Structure formats: C-alpha cells, structure tokens
Amino acid sequence: MNQEYEQDDRFETDEDEAEATRRDAGDAESSRASRGWWDRNADEYQNDHGAFLGDDRFVWGPEGLDEAEAGLLGPAEELKGLDVLEIGAGAAQCSRWLAARGARPVALDLSHRQLQHALRIGGEVPLVEADAGALPFRDGSFDLACSAYGAVPFVADPVRVFREVRRVLRPGGRWVFSVTHPIRWAFPDEPGPEGLSVSASYFDRTPYVEQDAAGRAVYVEHHRTLGDRVRDVVAGGFRLLDLVEPEWPAWNGQEWGGWSPLRGNLIPGTAIFVCERED
Ligand SMILES: C[S@@+](CC[C@H](N)C(=O)[O-])C[C@H]1O[C@@H](n2cnc3c(N)ncnc32)[C@H](O)[C@@H]1O
C-alpha cells in the first residue's frame, strides 16, 4: 500500500485539550463529532492500520477475521452480481474485496477525508458521502449490506440506521455489521494488564464523549449491551441469524488501541451481528 500521501491541513486541529467524559450525546451531536473526528484523524488511522487492513481485504476487526475465511455474507462465489452497500466504509478496503469477487459494492461514509483515502487507493468502487441515518438510496436497492466497525458504534440511534438499512435492502437481504464487543465497556481501554480488571458498569449506557473546552463533543462512542443490540436488530426489522465473537488467532501479534493478544485471549473484543431482513 502506498503510504505516501499529502497531509491535508484543513483537517488538523489540536485535540490535546479534549476532555474525556461520560455524558449524553444525541444523534446530531454524535454525527457532527464523528464527521469532524474522522476527517481530522483519517490520515493517522490509514497510516497506522492501512497495512493490516490491506487495500482490498475484508477484515471484520482487530482480531483479523477475514471475510474470505468467515463467509458471513454468504459463500464468496455467490457474491458475483450482487448489489452491496458498505456503511462506514472508510477507505473502502472491504468494498474493493467485494468488487474483486464480482459484486457491485457502493462504499458510503460520513467522512470526506476517509473517502479521499478511498480515492487515493483507487479502484472502481462508487463512493457516497452520507450519514448512515439517512441513506440516499431508493427502497430495495441492495442485496446485501455490511459494515466493519463503521457508523454503528458511533450513532445515538442505531435503530434508525437499521431501519434505513432495511429500507434499502431487497426482501431477504443480509445485514452484517461488527462493533466493539459490549463487554469491553466494563474494562479500561488498555491493551496491557491494566485492561483486565473491571472498572465500570457493563450496564451503564452513558456514551463515551471527548469534548473541547467549550463542551462541544469532538468524539462520541455509544454503548449498547448485547441484549440491547439484539433488541435493536429486531426493532429495525431484522432476524438475527448469528452472533460471531472472533477469537484472537495465534498469528496476530499486533496491538490495535485497547485490542491486544493478551486481552484477546481472555475476553472478546468484537461482536459481529449476522442479520436478515424480515419480509
Ligand atoms: C473504525 S472506522 C471503520 C472504517 C472501515 N470499515 C475499516 O474497517 O477501516 C469507522 C468509520 O465509520 C464512519 N462513520 C462514523 N459515523 C458514521 C455515520 N453516522 N454515517 C456514516 N459513516 C460513519 C467514520 O467516518 C469511519 O470512516
């Protein structure tokens, strides 16, 4: 992967002053914070994780579970000719993998800078800059929808997103998305031994917010328990087919933020929900 790209000064701000807290954050504030944070941090994200993600691999999370082996979207040989929406696509690595299998992916993301990285890497995948809560597509436009850690962890109202996904899917279409495993919210987000002791209530749904000196959110993540996520999937009009908790593989010695081999061998880091549109 070519890491030689021009930094864009428009997206640089000093986030050192941001204060981390737990407080409520609604849909509009969460979206605004996400767009700003991902625009400012896309360069660093792609620089740090681009090699692990690969330009045209479909990786579900820091464990490195690859769609080529997992087959959560269905058998790879049956992807040919399918219309697929990737939500929170970042630099569209997963969409490039889908395109190489003969699918017709569309890569959607809120962040302009993330999509500029998709353009930098190249390929023929159509890119759409939009919020997952208001998908700019006609009803029944896609056979499949997928998201590797895109959008869902960052929105205040996941049911709104799921209903939108349901609307743009054809009857029986699959919706597969990964998020931080909810159990992680009970532990410090640290890769070492300090990340192994419970420090917060798993049941506290108050969002994690980083805010600037004026109290404006600059980063927001939303916690839902496993049960909440199941209820959200059902409320969004889906059947839950599977809940995959990838185990940390022996080959993966790489840390990614609070994800590490040490913790990954003891507690799950990622939850992947495999859903199907209720007709
Ligand atoms: C952790 S990155 C994952 C990107 C990519 N799937 C990957 O695996 O590298 C999360 C992505 O979700 C996008 N995102 C966050 N909130 C969103 C929203 N409300 N609508 C669409 N995209 C959103 C961000 O801009 C970012 O590119």
TrEMBL record:
Taken from the record, one Pfam family name reads Methyltransf_11
The signal peptide here is: none
Enumerate the residue ranges of region (Disordered): 1-40
Residue intervals of the Methyltransferase type domain: 85-177
Entry-linked Gene3D superfamilies: Vaccinia Virus protein VP39
Q: Where is the composition biased (Basic and acidic residues)?
A: 19-40
Compositional bias per record (Acidic residues), positions renumbered to this chain:
1-18
What is the protein's given name?
Answer: Methyltransferase type 11 domain-containing protein
Give the source lineage, highest ranks first: Bacteria, Bacillati, Actinomycetota, Actinomycetes, Kitasatosporales
